[in-house]
Amino acid sequence: MQLAPVITIDGPSGSGKSVLSRALAKYLTWFNLESGVIYRLFACVFIKKNPIFSKKNLLSLLEDFNNYFNYNDGIICNFNTKDFTQYDLMSQKVTDISSKLATITYVRSNLLIKQRLFRRKPGLIANGRDMGTTVFPDAIIKFFLNAKLKYRALRRMCELQKKGFNVNFNNILLQMQKRDFRDINRIDSPLKTAKNAIVIDSSNMNVTEVLKVAMSHIKI
Ligand code: DC
Fold first, then answer.
1. Cβ 130 under 6 angstroms from ligand 1
2. pLDDT in tens, 9-27
């Protein structure tokens, strides 16, 4: 059986992955996987149920985490996010804890299985840190989206302000630097450019321009 095609978009936070991912999924009428949301959702469950970083506890929470996915004929359809709002998912605490949980190998291997179940026909756009390197190494096109730290922090600040958060630019920049460090230096599936990836620097580009460049590489 032929697997559904996948296009991956990796890059650091605030590089514009989610916006590009949604736009491409809409353009191709493919499914969209926002893998960061899985890590954030798991962080929410961790904080709510038992915030202890022991292996025993985390393995038990990972099992419990299965209940947050709706299965339909063995295929994951949707997150069951009624317990947590967009506001919860984007809070500073969840941002920080998800980044820490993402450095733990057995957490990553467990969440990797869930992410692969999102692969469905006609195709999947998957964005995150390790989509092209680890989760979908056979992706037909791999993008690596990047931007200068200052621009990424600015974008994140606007995004959080729109969602009702009271944020400070310098704090965001500092937190982003810390997360970048963790993402790039973790042992398991660190953030890096996949072999053959198309690198796009979005520092001086708006959403439409990024989308245009990405679409120019898609011949489907
Ligand atoms: O993309 P995001 O900021 O919503 O992701 C939240 C955290 O999850 C981020 O700090 C790193 C982690 N993450 C990861 O390690 N691998 C992914 N594929 C996606 C996210």
1. yes
2. 999 999 999 999 999 999 9
